[in-house]
Amino acid sequence: VDSGSVADLTAVLTQLNVSYASKFQFSETESVRNRLVGSLVSLLRETDNPTTGCDFQAAALQSLRIICRETVGLDHLTSSEGIKVVCNLAGLLEEVPDCSIDRMRVQEEALKCLSNLLLKSPPLARMCHTQGVLQGILRRMARDDMMPSQGIRFFDARLLFLITALNAETRSVVNQELNGIPTLVRALELCVLEHPGQLAIFSEENASLASELLKILYSLTMELKDLEGKDSDALCRLVQVVRLVLISKHVSTSVRSHAINALINMPSGCTPMLVPPVSAGDDAATARSVYRECDVSAVDALMANLSAVLTDNGSMPSSDAVIPILTAARTVAITCRIIRKYMKAKILPPLQHVTVRPEDEGGLKSLLVPLMMSHVTSIKEMVADFLFILCKENVSRLIKYTGYGNAAGMLFQRGLLGGGNQEQLGEYSTDEDTDTEDYLESDVDPITGGPRQPKPDPMAGMTEDEKEAEAVKLAALFEQLNSSGVMKVVPVGEDNQPLMTPQEGDGQTNSGNHCDDGDDDN
After folding, report:
1. How far is CA 472 from CA 461, 465, 467, 475, in A?
2. What is the pLDDT of residue 518?
3. What are the CA-CA distances from residue 202 to residues 101, 111, 192, 198 (Å)?
4. Which of 9, 242, 318, 350 sits CB 3.0–4.6 Å from 4 for a disulfide?
C-alpha cells in the first residue's frame, strides 16, 4: 500500500477482496488491520492524486467494507475525517453528484461501506448526520433529473433507514427540516407505479427498494405528533400505494408486510383512501369487493393476510407475526367507519341459530376468539381490543359475540368485569346491532357464547328419604359455619323478612320494625 504502483495496488486489493469475500472473521492482528485501514483512508482522501482513480477507489472501498465485518481495527475509518472521506466518495456531500458509470460504481461501494459501519457501530449514525448525509440522500432522491443506478437508490434508502432507526433525533430532522415524508412517498411512487393508480410489475430490485422506503416511512410517521399537517397529502398518496400493493397478486410477501406496517401510524383523514368510492358506471367494479359503494378489496386482502398469518402459525402464533397486522387492522377500523362496518360484517356477522361456541364457528372469528385466552399477553390484549372496537366498544355486544368467559380478561383490565358501562365507550354511530329471529330463539349460554348445555339433575334417582337426609346434612353444615363465626345466618320472620342485620362481632336483633326507605348505597 505504501510503495506499490496504482495498477499493482488495485490488483492486490482486488485479489484480497476475492479471497476474503465470504469471510467474516480475520486472523490478522488488530494493529495490522488498523494500519491497512489507515493507509487506504489516506489514499482515498487524496482526491486529486492520480492514484485515486475509480478502479482503485472501488477496490479500496470494497476492502474497507469487508474489514468492517469486525469492529476492531477501524479507528481511522470511524473517525470524523474517515467518515467524511467515505461520504464524499458516496456523492452525498455534492450538490450535483457525478452520475457517470465509473463514479456510480464508486458511490455504490461507498454506500455499502457506510451501511456496514452503521450496522457494526450504531453511534456513527449521529456522526453521519453531522456530516450532512441526510441532506445528501434526500437531495438525490428529490432530483427527478438524476437517474442513479438501482444499487445507489437501494443503498441510499438502506442508509437513511439505518440512520433514522438508530438515532431518534434524526427522525425529527428528516420530518421537520428536510421535507422527508413527501420526498420518500414520491420515491416510492416512482419505484412501484407504472402509471398513476397502476402498480408496475415488480422486479426483485424494485421490491427490495420498496421495502426499504416503506420501512423508513413507518419509522418517520411513528415519530410524528401531527400527522394531518403539511404531510397529509403525501400520507394520503402513501395509503393509495399501500392499497395497490395489498390488492396485487404479484407482490412479494416482504413488500406486502411492510406496506401493512405503514398503515399503523396513518391518521383518520388518510385511511378512507384505502376504500375509494366506486361510481355506478365503473365496469371494473364488478371484479372487486364493493360495500356501500366503496371498493373494499384492500380490506379483504388485509383480512386474508391476517387469516393466513393465524393459520400458518397454528394455535400458538408468535407476537412478531400477529401484532403488526392486528395493529394495522385496528388502526383502519377505528379511524374509518366504512372499514369498521365491513370488518364487523365479515368477522362478526349477525348471529343466527347458535349451535356451536364462537371459537368453533369457522372463518376469521374462530381464529381470533381463542387468542383472547392466549398466554402471550400482547396478542391477547390486541385481539380483544380489536374485537371490542368492531363491537363499537359495547360490553354487552362483545359478550354476545365472544362469550363472557373469553372477554373476561379484557373486561377486568378495563374495570368492566361486572358489566360496567353498557353504553358505547367510543365515538361511534348510534345504529343498533339487531338480533335475528333465529338468535332470539336460541338458548345461549352467556359464559361460553355457545348453546346452553343441559345439566344433569343431582338428585335424580334419589328417594325422598335420601333427599331429606341430604337436606339435614346441609343444615348441619350451615350451623357449623355459623357457630364457628365463618358466616352469620340471618333469622327470618313470619313475613319472610330478616329479623337482624349481620354485623361483624354483633349478634343483636333489630328492636324496631324492618323498614326499607328505598336508599341503597350499593
Report:
1. 18, 11, 9, 5
2. 41
3. 24, 24, 7, 12
4. 9
